[in-house]
Fold these 2 entries.
Entry 1:
Amino acid sequence: MHPPVVLSAPRLHSPAQTGDPTITLAPPDLIVLVTYVVVVIAFGCWFIRKSGTSDEFMAAGGSLPGWAVGMSIFGTYLSSNTFLGNPGKAYGGNFNAYLFTLSLPLAVWIAAKYFVPFYRKHGQISAYQHLEDRFGLWARTYAMLCYLLTQIARVGTIMFGVAIGLHALTDWDVTTIIMATGFLVTLYTLLGGIEAVIWTDVIQSIVLMGGALLIFGMLIFSMPEGPTQAWAIAKHAGKMELGSWDIDPTQSTVWVMLLFGLFINLTNFGIDQSFVQRYHTASSEQEAKRAVWLGAFMYVPISLLFFFIGAALFAYYETQPGLLDEVRQTVAAQNSVDMATLKAADIGDRVLPHFIATKLPPGLAGLLIAAIFAAAMSSIDTSLNSSATVILKDLYQRYCKPEVKEREAMYVLRIATIAIGFIGTMTALLLIGQKSILDAWWLLQGVFSGGMLGLFLLGIMTRHANAVSGLIAIMVGVSVIGWMTLSPKTDALPDMLRNPLHANLTIVVGTITIFLTGLLISRLANPVSAPSSNTELEKPLETKLKEPGEAGPE
């Protein structure tokens, strides 16, 4: 047996004072945290010298190595919600949610073989211009609006999530954390452009991995009987099971989660501006493919590590009933429920912050808080830069001024970055005590944006689909997605008219519905030849990004 690690005594405020254990940051913790934040911000701002043109701001001049782009993709996949949420899922259930990650290799193979070459040959930094080429302006506008709404909700969610997590660890004011996060990330994204985003993501990915390894090591070596005890307890409780292998579309089975993960990951790699933009930052098509593969290969084991952290947390707290009661008391008090009624799933998200707050040796708290902060920053900066690119290319140049000058393009990009950062920060502030607003927002944007993957696949996999078939397919698909999403939440419909399928199948059914509807309508129409917009897609396309000021609507 390995001897348990000797841990420092808890450094807590009284739970009666704060409602939850919190870290009183020691000087070494503050030094680590402040140093990290200063270094990252300064490093990001240093790239202002390389973001003087719109091409550099949006695509880094297409000069970055694949390994750096790949680590940025990896950093984008992670967030503070992943850092704190995935261990909570494993603690409260099992490894079923990890199947989302296991679908990633297949999605990456499809992306590397088809999506990356398509976008590199297409030559446009916008992920949505080709939708106009295939289906008309409505399709590009639809995708653009869905993407911007999604990113605003995403930025607000991540800022709010990291603020709640840091508040539980430090007792710092939630509003202050949100405003500081929004200001700092917007600052270096504004000054350094996509190159600042990617290189700071590289640093933050390393910090993330270090923080995760540190927590896992401390957990398993602090078990009373050594690491093997953690494995035995977690395995006996079924924490490392993947779920049911039955063919049951009403439950989150192995097959349902794999399908859900595949379609979500295809959406990311196929139609998400932040991913498409990274394809163009790589120095070549081959480097872009390497980047996609590297991001996946890094995320698969690190995601698994977070689930193992959750299983180890379960094992550790089973051997520490006093600590487990502290968590239960905190959750029961905050939710005004009887502590005896709480299950593992009810307290899963609170266990990791409690462990950090009560069992971390001096000097390491700052590193762990920096890791959580890094996870948030690497996701937010991506959303800010990609949203600014969409506003310039798909909104300003398409609707206002196609032949925009370089100076004006940079002005629009920077104003857009500030605007999205401000709106995202305000969204996070509005969520304080009003989480139901965000739930409704995510619900509605999920209904409308759920058709983006189906429309994208219809455009690249069929030759005869046109504006009419695409529009009808979207209308039918969004209606199906809306019914599948909203019908289980209303009492107005009888049971026979409610969606019986698991919620994770909504995007699967919606995407297939859009694709098959568009295909069927285009076949029934049986055009003599493909529409002119389709003919354009078959022509060789320039691989060079259009600079502001060049002719033609972008």
Entry 2:
Amino acid sequence: MQNHDYMTPTRLTPRLCRIGWLRAVLTCTLAVLTFYTAMAKKTSEPMEAYLFVYFTGNQPSEEQLKFAVSMDGYNWQPLNNGQKVVSVDNVARWKCIRDPHILRAEDGRTFYMVMTDMKCTEGWSSNDGIVMMKSNDLVKWKMSAVDFPTAFPKLFSRESCERVWAPQTIYDPEARKYMIYYSLQYTGQKLTIFYSYANKDFTSLTEPVKMVDYGRDILDADIIRTDTCYHMFLSGIWKVTAPTLKGPWSKLTEKRLQPTWMAAEGPCVFRRAASSATGQDGGQGDWCLMYDCFRNGEFNFSRSNDLETFELVARTETKGDFTPRHGTVMAITMKELQRLLKAFPSDGLTVELLRREAMPEGCRQLIIDERTPDGQRYGKNPIFKHEYTCDPAPVVWGDTLWLFTGHDVPGPRNYNIPEWSCFSTTDLRHWRQYPSIMSVKSVTWDRSHQAYAAHAIRRNGKYYFYFSTNGSGIGVATSDRPEGPYRDALGHQLVTNDMCPWATHGWRNIDPAAFIDDDGQAWLFWGNGVPYYAKLKENMIELDSPVMRVNLKDAGYRYTEAPWIHKRDGRYYFTYAVGFPEKLAYAVSDRIDGEFRCQGLLAETAGNSNTTHPGIVEFKGQWYLFTHDGSLPGGSGACRSVVVYRLQYNDDGSIQKVKLDSDGIW
């Protein structure tokens, strides 16, 4: 191996470094403004979708270039039914590739791809070069390969060049050339980041120059430019910054930027359009950091406004014909999307399907597992571990279970609940969380500022949300969509304290639960201390009877609050909280307005919570009990978390007692 000293930039003095930083920042800012001005002129069409380029595994058939598309940048559909879209057999030394990166050129019309020329079955040190591609339409690609021992024989031999991994392209405004940077390792050296410049035809490279050296192996660099500096994300998931592409780069602190605990590699950061989920151009949106959680079989997507703190948005499992590994994402126009769908069709894949699967702005996609986001091992219960949730109200519409909850927030007082939340699932493992469906601040007649329990129901294509606050009564809000947002339908209470004479305390009108019987009659149950009910009119926003008291024969299990009605095999089940700290009891009746006889306890006190709140629903042939406890780290009777259990019935219709634990339904 020959001397590589010239591959390391000249050392800068502290004074020159400071002057260089100032000059570099001004240069970078001017270059960024010039770049975006040029892009605005040359790319008149809005970016409405995303292209994901990737490979899928460690076998030769998987180390091929594959494409997937998305309307939101989180939910992906593979093109060409998950098969390779472009063959590299004629240029790649190993006829296999990994780690593809795609970039739209400054002119807005040209596209560049670079990727690792490697065959994993030949060993992790088998690759000596990269593949370079250029296209004007994303369909037809001109390609070449750069084999480092052949291209740079004075620097490398076949034996000394051990790894050339994960190349990426970025435009260098100072050099006015496209820079290719990559992880390079040769005999006796650590794996670190080098760079070269591509020629005009994008077919060859200049000699490698060391970009950073932290005295340790680093790889999978992804560099993006903002109006102040360059950000280099690394496998880890770490970040360093510099005023120019040539540095000086900041100290490596190994601060993990990912908001999840899983081992991750292959970071990719891209800018989302402001309204990408709706397919409407809204300018620049937030940043998305995606990374490959390779040991867990999923990609994670996080968003940020400042590239310093990231919030988990989506966990996308890799399964079926979509099993991506390290890859990158680029925004595309609608015309480009349609061109790709035509050139690489997949069964049933259309723009309309992509729109339906797109996640509305402000949502999250969650996967239930045994850990909190920071990695603390836990049981499968509670369901949601990223925030506190309470007072679950599950409903099933079609093949989807919708779950409405309160949102406990730690604060100076008990039951600090500023808003109501909504989640949905089709399998109880993969959940979508929607933006807050309603804030208690929007309720003009409320005095408490506490969003107590609520329940949603659907009738005639409209959704009705019955909600309570602490001492102000029960209201009803409406929406045209299950996930809201909901608006107060009346501007005043549906139920007030003076309508309920059997109690005198101020918070007696809480915990509404709606039910539509088989004959179409709608009912509303509620109450603290005393269980109340009344008929609802067809319009669902007015009572159609006087307020009545539930005829409950409690057998010593005195009613406290949190009523829930469900029907099974012609029998009505009335579940409620009893005592304090609360347990769950249930009663049955042959008539919804008849006598309910208590059958005993359904569950003991929930862990670390003095309240409970049942929600019972049948979903895909199985009955489930939802309630809440205080078992999350930092949890309590005022910082609760929703849990779920299977509900089992005996032959006589009685319900088996539920054991409340962290296993839940898994």
